[in-house]
Amino acid sequence: MDSPALDPLDLQVLQALQLDGRAPFSRIAAVLGVSDQTVARRYRRLHNTAHVRVLGMTDENRLGRQTWIVRLRCVPDVAEQLADALAKRPDTLYVSLISGGTEVMCGMKPRSRKERDELLFDRLQRTRQILTVTAHCVLHPFYGGSHGWLTKSNALTPDQESALRPPAPEPLDGPVTLDAGDEALLAVLRHDGRATLTELQKATGQTESAVKRRLEALRSGGVLYFDVQYDHEPLGQDVSAMLWLTVLPRALADVGRSLAAHPEVHFASATTGQANIVVAARFRSPEQLYTYLSEKIGVLDGIQAVETSLVLRQIKQLTYDPNR
């Protein structure tokens, strides 16, 4: 069944959650000028019809870890099986089938250099059905992470955004070290960013006040942020594409800033590799993708080459949920 189109209030609720995934419905309602019950009903409906979920995510840079984008070209008929196996791994952020169904792309966040090397240089390289492995280390994000696409929807007024946006993370002197309680807290929030304090207490074995303090510390330190997962079809974003841009080094920053401002772009980052900027973007149709490539990408100074791949199917989006 197709998901119903979203109305302006739906979009306002979604953008409010993108700004602060744990904002109480009462606070969102006060900013939007509606009742608490209206916001709660909209959220439940969006959850049921557009699979909207708030997820707690970690900024790997703040933990001193690297994020990788990996492309795996496979023999025919095994890409889907490989994608399913990768989706079940806790160190994958997302997994997609691209390029005619013979290529798998995934975002990976290995917790250590040892885990990275075991995966990239051992397991994947020794899998006979995988023909090539290309790994891009994320160097500098231009857009994405805590800057979710819904903030570009302009459903909220500037004053409403200001009222809902939490304070910016504090600058850090070095990587944050997580203890067992933090790990347990984050594990729950990765599957439900709006988990109650009671649920977080049960998972961590800590008091309510201790959970509140640690939750605030992780957020103010920029380690924890919240993203909104949802079906894109109700927003008219049926075509998903990955762009692999080869950009002159002198133009990297300017091109990255331009891409971040494009409403079509959901993610853009400088990476290692011949293609040194990776972009994820969504469009209403292939024709709109063509227009974007010719009229927005084509005019940016410093771009030497562009490879475009359509995402055929999203196997995993931000977190693995086998019941979805």
Describe the structure.
The protein is α+β, with helices and mostly antiparallel strands and 324 residues long. It has a domain at 144-151 and 236-312: Lrp/AsnC effector binding domain/regulation of amino acid metabolism (RAM) domain (Alpha-Beta Plaits), CATH 3.30.70.920. It is 36% helix and 26% strand. The protein is built from eleven helices and ten strands. It has helices at residues 8-19, 25-32, 36-49, 79-87, 113-123, 158-164, 180-191, 197-204, 208-220, 252-261, 286-297; strands at residues 53-58, 68-74, 92-98, 103-108, 130-143, 224-229, 239-247, 265-271, 277-283, 303-317. An eight-stranded antiparallel beta barrel has the order 2-4-3-10-7-9-8-5. The protein has a two-stranded antiparallel sheet with strand order 1-6. α7 (180-191) packs across α8 (197-204). The longest helix has 14 residues, at 36-49. It is globular. The two termini are 14 Å apart. The model is unreliable at 320-324 (pLDDT under 50).
